[in-house]
Amino acid sequence: MARIPMKNQALGRPNSQSGSVLILIFICIGLFAALSFVMSQGFRSGESGLTEQQAKLAATEIIEYLNKVKSTFDTLTIGGCDPLKIDFSTSYYAKGGGSAADTAPAGTTEACGLYTSTGGKISPVTFTEHAATAYSPGGSDIKGGHASARYVDGSGLGTTANDLAFMFAGIDQKICLAALNMSRTTDSTVTSVPTSSYTVAGSNSYTQGAAGSLTALAMPTTARIWAVKASSGDTWCTIGIILKVN
Fold first, then answer.
1. What is the value of pTM for the model shown?
2. What pLDDT score was predicted for residue 41?
3. With 0-12 CB in 10 A as exposed, 13-18 as middle and 19+ as buried, what is 109?
4. How buried is 203 (Cβ within 10 angstroms: 0-12 exposed, 13-18 middle, 19+ buried)?
5. Closest by alpha carbon to 204, among 62, 91, 100, 72?
6. CA distance 230 to 156
7. For strand 147-154 and strand 216-217, is the pairing parallel, antiparallel, or unpaired?
8. Which of 36, 146, 150, 175 would you call most buried, defined as having the most Cβ atoms within 10 angstroms of its Cβ?
């Protein structure tokens, strides 16, 4: 009688292909765990994953908007608005505690509002996507990527009186560094964001401090675009433009 071959005789033999697949799976799991660890360490330390090109693109966006605010401010003042009564207030920009970043100055009119339909006619813009992950504003600090108008002491600008500036808070310092180099008017490359524990005058942009009362704002370029961080360990910075030199 002919013997019928057994089809399942080889089932008990080790399958080399299956073993290879398992090894590849374990390797992938190990690589994923290592990548996750590296990424988590970066987030914990507040380090930015931005490339140089990404930082430049973000800096271009912010600079373009700052220049738009500056040109609108100039148009309003040329049109007869008192610089001290130009209204920067909007519910769009807020402090960490939730209150508005700026309040309307006494005596202002709708025609002298930066964002009103009869005034500057521009829209407020936030750059929250460009804020540093480690930036955690207090109740009176401006939210990351939000803006405010304040008096600052622009070092080397005009007189000892304080200068009006418009600025974004909590921005990734790589973006600030890119902005400084894009705005510089000298051949010298800016290698780091200046550390300057500068102060601002009053609770909003309309209370100017006495001449020389503010800590000087580091101005690494002669351009009106500036950026500083409060301490050397910060991974975020403030970036702004001088609107009016006093």
1. 0.76
2. 42
3. middle
4. exposed
5. 100
6. 19
7. parallel
8. 175
Cα–Cα distance for residue pair 94/184, rounded to 1 Å: 30
Sequence-distant (≥ 6) Cβ neighbours of residue 179 within 8 angstroms: 59, 62, 63, 225, 227, 239
Distance CA 148, CA 96 (A): 13
pLDDT of res. 111: 97
Residues 6 or more apart whose CB falls under 8 angstroms from that of 174 comprise 48, 50, 52, 55
Separation CA 41–CA 35 (nearest Å): 10
Quickly list DSSP for the chain: -PPPPPTTGGGGS--HHHHHHHHHHHHHHHHHHHHHHHHHHHHHHT-----HHHHHHHHHHHHHHHHHHHHHHHHHHHTT--GGG-B---TTSBBTTSSBS--PPTT--GGGBSSSTTTT-------GGGB-TT----TTSBPTT-EEEEEEEETTSSSSS-EEEEEEEEEEHHHHHHHHHHH-SSSPPP-SPPB-----BSSSTT-PPPTT-SPEEP-SSSSSEEEEBSSTT-SEEEEEEEEE--
Q: Which tens digits make up the pLDDT trace of 41-85?
A: 443 444 568 999 999 999 999 999 999 999 999 999 999 999 888
pLDDT of residue 23: 72
Considering only the C-alpha atoms of the chain, give the largest distance between any 2 of them, rounded to a whole number of Å.
115
